[in-house]
Design goal:
Largest sheet: none
Order of helices and strands: HHHHH
Radius of gyration: 16 Å
Shape: globular
Helix content: 55-70%
Number of helices: 5
Strand content: under 5%
């Protein structure tokens, strides 16, 4: 897979890990109680951070993780983290290959096909696929 495809593939894992552990995701040991998505996200972030140590972008990467952790639901901060991930992957073909291998070993898989299909691992709200659905609060 190319770097941009890999960056898109890992976004849900990274977001889940940052949401679960905050900035500790970068240094925390693997947690046996964490689900597969969080664990994979944590491994991905730690691998990317390891490749960044001493590099020019390491501070920006750490800051992007911290900002995403402080506001886990904020799409802008998630986007900033994705940008840092893309930069790291585009700059390092070996890192991209390593992350691709991590993805291929993951037991987590989502597939949705067809009109109105939805694939989610966790949901705390309403999912509506009907064209005439009405959601009332």
């Amino acid at each position: 897979m190319d770097a941009l495809t890999v960056a898109g593939e890992i976004a849900p894992y990274v977001t889940a890990a940052v949401g679960a552990y905050g900035t500790a995701v970068l240094t925390r040991a693997a947690d046996a109680s964490a689900d597969a998505t969080v664990t994979l996200g944590q491994r991905i972030l730690q691998r990317i951070r390891g490749s960044q140590e001493g590099a020019e972008g390491s501070d920006r990467f750490d800051r992007a993780v911290a900002e995403a952790a402080e506001a886990p639901g904020d799409e802008d901060f998630q986007a900033m983290l994705r940008v840092q991930i893309k930069r790291a992957l585009l700059a390092d073909a070996e890192l991209t290959a390593d992350i691709t291998r991590l993805l291929s070993q993951s037991p987590v898989s989502f597939t949705a096909s067809g009109d109105g299909s939805v694939a989610v691992q966790h949901n705390s709200g309403v999912i509506s696929t009907g064209s005439n659905a009405q959601i009332q609060r």
